[in-house]
Design goal:
One of its GO terms (biological process) is chorismate biosynthetic process. Pathway: Metabolic intermediate biosynthesis; chorismate biosynthesis; chorismate from D-erythrose 4-phosphate and phosphoenolpyruvate: step 2/7. By secondary structure, this protein is α/β, with parallel strands linked by helices. The protein has 2 domains: 162 residues, 3-Layer(aba) Sandwich (Rossmann fold); 184 residues, Dehydroquinate synthase-like, alpha domain, CATH 1.20.1090.10. Helix 7 runs parallel beside helix 11. It is globular and about 60 Å long.
Length: 351
């Protein structure tokens, strides 16, 4: 268990006994469960078996980042209204990052806020969305540009759900594990490099160690005014590439795009703040050994720059990057010219 200021993260809650106790103790008027077609088929039966004594009201949406938008929120709010949800209702978000981000956002805004509990079913959601209270949706091709900060009443992590994931989804989440090591812990990164098969990891240990990195950072800066920006390493360029990839025949998963972001931002780190060339030449081959190279030539670099310029972390019309001084040490609010960003994309293309 990881205890935060106003909620706890539970690991491997056997038969969801703690979740059941929490729901009963709070005497909720109705318990809603938000799923997509994948978690409805693969994960919901596990939850239903554990919560047989509690009536669950289902809301099912289409899976995928393409549906993380205001139209889907309207569908969720309408479903809550139709099933007579009130402010003593609770929403259980059973799914990956899209379900958690959007479900939490909908719960936080429905009737000025109802309780929600996160049950992330992907590695990405467990290591990236369990701590920090970031909720929201995509708008105008810009990821997570509409949203708010609000914490759940609890988070329940159950690594057996990983058995339902395709390998690509597992590796997408593993990219965030790598990111946490790169910004905070050089020894942890070395251990990851020595891991021959990420899918054979001790997931409880891997997830808990990664979450402790994020916990340390978020507790110091809950609203992303300073040190929490370090968690955006790889995401400034990565988010732009991810959004544009959805319009191609080869859409990227979040973690796959973040890997491209980490490689290009390691290049920027070398050019701008002295990230050692030896480390650049250590990190880049490792990432490419885990994640197949993606052809960026099909993306318009002008559009990449346009989306980067809309990034929510920018200030005073300047693009703000989190870059690496060395493995395990970061610097926030580093500015890069458009020309240098394009060179970083060329660096990746020419690998």
């Amino acid at each position: 268990m990881i205890a935060l200021e106003d909620y706890v993260i539970q690991f491997q809650d056997e038969h969801f006994a703690a979740l059941k106790a929490q729901l009963l103790a709070n005497s909720y008027s109705k318990v809603f469960v938000l799923v997509d077609e994948h978690t409805q088929a693969l994960c919901l039966p596990i939850l239903q078996a554990a919560l047989q004594e509690i009536e669950l009201h289902l809301i099912s949406i289409k899976a995928g980042e393409a549906h993380k938008n205001i139209r889907t929120c309207q569908f969720i709010w309408t479903a809550l209204m139709a099933q007579q949800a009130d402010r003593k209702s609770v929403l259980l978000n059973l799914g990956g990052g899209v379900i958690g981000d959007m479900g939490g956002f909908c719960a936080s805004t429905f009737k000025r806020g109802i309780d929600f509990i996160q049950i992330p079913t992907t590695l990405l959601a467990q290591v990236d969305a369990s701590i920090g209270g970031k909720l929201g949706i995509d708008f105008g091709q810009v990821k997570n540009s509409i949203g708010l900060f609000n914490n759940p009443k609890a988070v329940y992590l159950y690594s057996d759900f990983f058995q339902t994931l395709p390998q690509k989804e597992l590796y997408s989440g593993y990219a965030e594990v790598i990111k946490h090591a790169l910004i905070q812990n050089s020894d942890a990164f070395t251990q990851l490099v020595q891991t021959t098969a990420p899918e054979a990891s001790d997931w409880k240990r891997t997830v808990s160690e990664s979450l402790l990195v994020k916990k340390t950072i978020v507790e110091q800066d809950p609203f992303e005014q300073n040190i929490r920006k370090s968690l955006n390493f790889g995401h400034t360029i990565g988010h732009a590439i991810e959004s544009l990839s959805w319009e191609t025949e080869q859409p990227l998963l979040h973690g796959e795009a973040v890997v491209i972001g980490m490689i290009t931002e390691c290049y920027l780190s070398h050019q701008l703040i002295g990230f050692p060339e030896k480390q650049l030449n250590f990190v880049t081959p490792y990432l490419l050994s885990r994640y197949p190279k993606y052809d960026l030539k099909g993306l318009d670099p002008v559009q990449v720059l346009r989306l980067i310029q809309q990034d929510k972390k920018n200030e005073h019309q300047q693009i703000c990057f989190t870059l690496l001084e060395e493995i395990g040490a970061f610097k926030i609010n580093v500015h890069a010219s458009d020309a240098l960003i394009l060179k970083a994309l060329d660096y990746y293309n020419n690998l």
